[in-house]
User: Fold this.
Amino acid sequence: MKTAKISLDDRVLVRQCQSGDSAAMERLILKYQDRIYNVILRISGNPDDAAELTQESFVKIIENIDNFQGRSSFYTWAFRIAVNLTLSYCKRQGKLGYRSLDVGSEDLNGGERGRLREFLADKSVCDPAVITANKELCELVIRGLMKLDDNHRAVIILRDIEGMSYDDIAAVLNVELGTVKSRLSRGRDNLREIVEANLQ
Assistant:
């Protein structure tokens, strides 16, 4: 029920934005800016780049709001702009594959840490009781995440941290559903190997 209300609110706000209502655009920005910033930060690994790219993403969203036709949710459309802008920026800067290790577990909220721990527990990296109690493991996971290639990292961030559905991830990344699933599987396997190697 709550999801439907959020979707309805977005549709109303988007229509108001398209009619020139700047207050409606401000509400949309406030609603999504933290989530978009966090996803950009996870992909870029740099808080300064993430802040700049978040601002640039919202500039693009504002510039293109009249072109939004509602074929996907506003949330998916906005994330597509932000993620594609970030991946393009990182490729141009040669930053993919090299990430600041300053982006650690302290930047994750409890829900994000929980999702990462659940996925690691499901893959039997180590005893779930150890995972729950071990802050160092969470830091290893984040560091390992920063070592993945951009395609695998983006899918894991959108699924295991942001909690997006497979369909939404496919729409954001503009890839087939099967591609999302295979990248997620390979990315999780690679991440698990990196974490396990650091646990030994």
User: Anything to note?
Assistant: The chain is about 75% helix and 0% strand.
